[in-house]
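> call design_seq(struct)
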């Protein structure tokens, strides 16, 4: 299946809204695989356990955790650590206000 590698690619920038969309798309596919409709009133966890499938959201969280562990084991003077610790020196001006027509 191509869905899982595609969803795990760049998983560190997924928002909560994206996670809900991924979960609903996953459940739509698993319901079709299990030959259930939404009128059958089957809970998502029951369908996933019947098909012996782990949720994609859990796999995404595992990938994020692995990345964080790998990040923490790198040297402190490498560029990713410097980027994570960066804070601007002074407050930037907002510029001119927009003109009303």
């Amino acid at each position: 299946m191509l869905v899982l590698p595609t969803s795990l690619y760049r998983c560190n920038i997924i928002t909560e809204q994206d996670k809900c969309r991924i979960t609903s798309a996953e459940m739509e596919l698993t319901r079709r695989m299990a030959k259930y409709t939404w009128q059958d009133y089957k809970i998502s966890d029951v369908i996933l356990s019947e098909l012996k499938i782990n949720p994609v959201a859990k796999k995404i969280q595992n990938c994020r955790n692995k990345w964080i562990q790998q990040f923490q084991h790198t040297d402190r003077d490498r560029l990713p650590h410097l980027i994570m610790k960066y804070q601007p020196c002074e407050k930037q001006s907002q510029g001119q206000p927009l003109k009303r027509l």
